[in-house]
Every structure is written in C-alpha cells, then in structure tokens.
Design a protein that fits this description.
The chain is an alpha/beta fold. It has 16 helices and 13 strands. The protein has a six-stranded mixed β-sheet with strand order 1-11-10-9-12-13, sandwiched between helices. The structure holds adenosine-5'-triphosphate. Its EC number is 2.7.1.-.
Amino acid sequence: MCECVSIPREIRERCEELQLSDEQLREIMKRLLDNIERGLARDTHAASIVKCFVTYVQDLPNGTERGKFMALDLGGTNFRVLLIELGENMHFDMKSKIFAIPQHIMVGPGKQLFDHIADCLGAFMKEHHIEHECLPLGFTFSFPCVQKGLTKGLLVRWTKGFDCEGVIGQDVVELLEQAISHRNAVKIEIAGVLNDATGTLLSCAHKQSNCRVGLIVGTGSNACYVEKVENAQLFDGDRSKPYVLINTEWGAFGDDGALDFVRTEFDRDIDNNSINPGKQLHEKMISGMYMGELVRLVLVKMTNDKLLFNGQGSDLLFKRGNFFTKYVSEIESDKKGTYASCRQVLEELGLGHATDQDCANVRYVCQVVSTRAAHLASAAVATLINKIQEESVTVGIDGSVYRYHPHFHNLMMDKIATLVTPGLKFDIMLSEDGSGRGAALVAAVAARGHAKTA
Ligand SMILES: Nc1ncnc2c1ncn2[C@@H]1O[C@H](COP(=O)(O)OP(=O)(O)OP(=O)(O)O)[C@@H](O)[C@H]1O
C-alpha cells in the first residue's frame, strides 16, 4: 500500500486488524481444507460447515455443443432470462433480459417468487416468438442446495437478502415446473439446476480447457471445483466417470468460529445487523453485499474518534447501507494523489467538508477492506488449486466486485502466487456472463449426453 507514508499513524493502527498476514492466510487455508475434506466425506458431511455439495455435473463442455437453449439466472441482485444459441466454432449468440425482483417478492411467499419467475419467462419467450417451442432450460439458482440429481435441488437456506417462505427443503426445479405449468403460458424442459459458481466454471471451460475452479465475488462469494469422484464420498451418480463438480458453499466457512481469530468488531457488527446472523461469515468478509458497509463502519468509528472529517460526520454517513460497494471501486480508481471520485462520493454522503488528508484516509480504509477481501478469496482459491494438484489450472471468476474493482485481479494474482504450492501454475480469467452461459451449457452438455446414448 504505497500511500502509507501520508496516512497518520492512528489511522494505520486502527486498520491493522483488517490486514491479514501470510501466516494468518495459511492458517485460514489449513482450516478451509479441513472443512472441505469434512464436507466431502460421508461420516463428517452432516456436521461440516462447508458442505461441498455434489452437483451431478461431470462433463465439461468440449465445443461440440449445438442448439438453442433457455437459461434462468436467479441468485442476487438481478434476475435474468436468456436465450442462447450455440453454433459452429464456439459461436455463441445470446439474448437476455433483466427483470427486477421487487423487495416484497424477495421476502414474500415462495409461490409468489416462482410465479413471478414463470411470468417473466413467459413474457420473454413471447417477446422472442418462441412461446410454442419446448426448449431445454438450465436453471441457475445461486443459493445453497443439496442436489439429488442434475434436475433436483433442495434449498438448504436463503442467503443474500432473500427469505421466501415455504421453499427451504423443497425441490426448486419442481417449484419452477409447477409455476410454469400453473401459469400455462409456455412449455419448457428443465435440463439442469446449478449455481453461478458452477456456471462460471462451465462457461470458462468452454473457452479454456484447463479451467477447474469457478469463483464468484459478487453479491455473495462461493466456489465450485472439479473433484475426483473417488473423493466425493456422497456422490451416488455415475462413479465410472472420473470427475464431478463440487459446489463448496464456502460462504458459510467460519460459521463455527473458524474465522473468529481474524474477525473484527466491524465484521461482528455487519453480522449482527444482517438478516442471517451467525451465517455466511466468510462471505460477509469478502463479498459485495457487505464490503461498502464494512468501510462505512470503519469510517464512522474514525469520525466518532475525531480522526476523520474533523469529527463531523453526516446523517448519510451514519445511516446503514449508505456506502455502496461500488464507491470502493470508484475511490480506489482515482490516480495516486488525486481524489476526484473520492470527493464526489463524499459529497454525495454530505461530507463536502473533507480535506485532502481525509480523502487519502478514506481511500486507505477502502484499500484495506478490499485488499482483505481479495486476500481471503485468494487464500480460498489457493486451497483449491493445491488440492486439485494439476500442473496448470485456470480459475474462472465472475461477480461485480472482481469485475469492477480496479485492483482485485492483481491483488489476487499476487497473493495466490504466494500461497500455491511451488511448481503449480495458475491463471485467472474473467467469466463472460458465467451464470447465463453456464446454465445453457449444462443444458447443452446434457443434450450431448442424450445424443450419445441415443
Ligand atoms: N463497481 C462496482 N465495484 C464493486 N462492487 C460492485 C460494483 N458494482 C456493484 N457492485 C457490487 O456487486 C454486487 C453485485 O454483484 P453481481 O453484479 O455480480 O450480482 P449477483 O449476480 O447478484 O451476485 P451473485 O453472483 O453473488 O449472486 C453488489 O453487492 C454490489 O454492491
């Protein structure tokens, strides 16, 4: 962090607990690996915090997939319906539309949510004049699910601000099918349910054949990776194939206290004020739903201690949720020694009286919080790379935090390089629309399978 020189000692000291040493990161890796192994093993799975659910996806795309597919992507800020056509030479034609999920639907009855999804699907198919076709559909549903097959996923719990009654324990594919037939508008054949991390892995593997990890750093954080079937003890699918994709659900890592040695008062505050206290503690230290709020909490404390803004905050700064995660990216995008975006953000927050020193301090806090997130994500990715132990592995990543934060990629490249077993090569690539393409690819790979057996 090159700007330390101009940052007062008190500010730096307050931020120390938010900076993780390599030793701490290695300890986190050890604990995460232990959690992953417990999630995979028959005897320890039930009690394991990191669930490592099997996905039943065993084949990666190989470029021979062809046809027209639908995809639904539900799992965070936006809900999307997509129509994707796979052609020769990896040609990918995609039409998509974003539909809002109103807040009252996010926390209302489950039936209302699935009816809404079915209505949006029907409207989209009509708009594209395909309402009379029965197309295969991949359903990206990015919440923790126990899968019982490629087309059966039971919701374990809601995350990321959703809390719809009557869905936990239910098969979300069945709920979607019921809603579609109930609305009676279109016909669809659901070919697979997956989450966005799996979709990201598949969409990157379509381009980069050594892709073995899919990572999300968006509203939430999660990862999926390619595991040997022999290690996936609970997998009851085709054990004659060598691999199966594992959905780690690592957002829950730490829910048993494993991360308490690095959690701070700010992390505890975020958790206590969330709709799922005590849950998803790893995710809450990394992802976009919480990053801005973490920064705000640090700024509030420093303001109250008269270390910022001459002790004069603003109503907007003191109100929860007002410091958006995109502000972190904007503030850190200012060139060294300049504060144009920072000033704009502070003005929006009623802090027009900030001095240049305040701006430098605010940027420092943003850097500390986003760097911690990038380092935690890196430690978790390095854990998987070391576990996979292939000579060269590509990690596909999606999510607005990774996509838009100006330094996240570089921070991750540097830290993963420090943490992986010497000799293992890796690369990380941005997934172009992983959840949508990935869902279509699941449907397409399944269709390829049918074609083969037919
Ligand atoms: N410019 C930005 N820089 C950093 N974070 C951002 C930016 N814009 C949006 N975000 C954050 O990214 C999150 C949304 O992530 P994304 O767009 O990947 O959506 P998502 O699909 O809902 O996420 P997920 O895949 O976790 O379900 C929000 O928490 C938001 O605050």
